[in-house]
Amino acid sequence: MPELDALREHLLALLAGYGRVAVAYSGGVDSAVVAKAAQLACGDKAVAVTAVSPSLAQGELDAAAKLAGLIGIRHEIIQTDEFRNPDYLANPFNRCFFCKTELYQRVAELAPRFQVDVVVNGANLDDQGDHRPGMQAANNFQVRSPLIEAGLNKALVRELAREWQLPVWDKPASPCLSSRIAYGIAVTPERVARIDQAESFLRTTFQLREFRVRLEANELARIEVAEADLDTVLSPPARDQIRRRLHELGFRYVTIDLDGFRSGSLNAVIPLASLRVITTT
Fold first, then answer.
1. Does 199 lie in the same domain as 145?
2. Same domain, 84 and 201
3. Pair type for strands 118-120 and 211-216
4. Residue 262 shares a structural domain with residue 188
5. Residues contacting residue 67 through CB under 8 Å, at least 6 positions apart
6. pTM (2 d.p.)
7. Contacts (Cβ under 8 Å, ≥6 apart) of 225
8. Residue, of 272 and 54, whose pLDDT is higher
């Protein structure tokens, strides 16, 4: 693909021009591509930094570490404390702003130890058309977005990941566990742990790949699965298994959303209540 070849070279040139680079790295396809590009462009002047907190799903840290080893980039793990921030716990529409502020502030504080000049993230062109309050936090800390600067959208990122033989090239998006909690419902370690256990159960029991367990008001679990998997989870035996397990985990009500999986479906309420967005900075 001539277009992809040109964009790849542009991406590598951008990163080489940044100097010493820290990649905000989750192990998803976007940050993995940036990490790989940084390793190719900057060599040992690049480091991948993974933040750990209760909102990180089980298995994600181990997978990110293994992938960083495959890429060949130095990998640093840091603890973040967004769960100590009352603005984050209140779960306003711009919750992600407080999370990313915590992340970028911690990386900035550790920059001398990591020996880096610039922090970069994995935002791509498609993220510009979505609700992404974390991008404001990135701007506040002068974080660069090389995929956007190089002109790569999600589809091209996946193509580049496949070209580089990164095993996550087709991995579904996996945002933090807090993103499953409806806005205005408090984020707590107990709730994100419960969601994590519910999703782990559904993934292993029914071999689901792209789905979410969303926590709505009154401890209601709203399960979204791909349309192709609806028949599987709606069969009487499956419904009984799901109902019993999620009640055991502490959900009061259990529902399966007939509209199926939609990325960012909780954002649908934002225009209806935009005047209530918390703007604390």
1. no
2. no
3. unpaired
4. yes
5. 27, 32, 166, 167, 168
6. 0.91
7. 202, 208, 210, 211, 232, 233, 256, 260, 261
8. 54
